[in-house]
Amino acid sequence: MAFIDVIDDRDIDAEVRAMYDRQQSHYGYVPNYARAFCHRPHVMALWAQLQNGIRRDMDKRRFELVTFAAAHALKSTACSIAHGRVLSQFIPAEHVLAIGRGETPSSLTPAEAALITFARKVAIDATAVTVDDVQGLKRHGFTDGEIFDIAATSAARAFWTKLLDALGVEADAAVQKLAPEFREALAVGRPLDFASHTCEEAPEV
């Protein structure tokens, strides 16, 4: 499940139990990434607060476009699949895969295409972002606050993906329920391994 050992369920304290219960209530099971936080459940709580704060002023489509673009650029298999799945609620699944290939499908507006380019640049090398990149977003109608939201979403995703990959957290077996061509195309980082898991609903991470 991960490179680090997790605390046996019989030995977890009340804080970890509460964290697991929240995950169980939301997804119907405890995702692998949550179990990796058993040693530091307060960090999971801080992550949830950060995510809620960042996306408070964004509509869900925009949040998922930015998150998917950043996760894919960061080569996170788990996040690319999870957020690609959510993004497919707003655009066709084949268009999600096209974005992953670096294409601009017809379902995207010019502003959204620019947003994706910016999000990728922040994720890959934020020092490469220039004032011209920001001005380009403004020409598409983005406000300074909205540009902040895009940058914050992409930068936060770097924290999450790097932490989970550093700990070797595996994707949940629920991913097996997704179409093979979808999950395989978005396995851009760690390979998928479901040998020791059972199927549940795929979570957002």
Helix tally?
10
Tell me how many strands there are. 0
Structural class: mainly alpha
* Sequence of secondary-structure elements: HHHHHHHHHH
The poorly predicted ranges are: 195-201
Helix coverage percent of residues?
Answer: 55-70%
Mean of the pLDDT scores? 93
Strand content: under 5%
The CATH class label of the domain at 59-165 is Mainly Alpha
Q: Which term fits the overall shape?
A: globular
- Give the CATH superfamily of the domain at 59-165: AhpD-like
CATH architecture level-2 label of the domain at 59-165: Up-down Bundle
User: The CATH topology of the domain at 59-165, please?
Assistant: AhpD-like
Distance between the ends: 15 Å
The main pleated sheet reads as: none
Radius of gyration: 17 Å
What does this molecule look like?
This protein has 205 residues and is an all-alpha fold. It has a domain of 107 residues: AhpD-like, CATH 1.20.1290.10. The protein has 10 helices and no strands. Helix 4 crosses helix 9. About 3% of the residues have low confidence.
Please render the helix and strand layout as text.
Layout: H1 14-27, H2 32-36, H3 41-54, H4 60-73, H5 77-87, H6 93-100, H7 110-125, H8 131-139, H9 144-166, H10 180-185
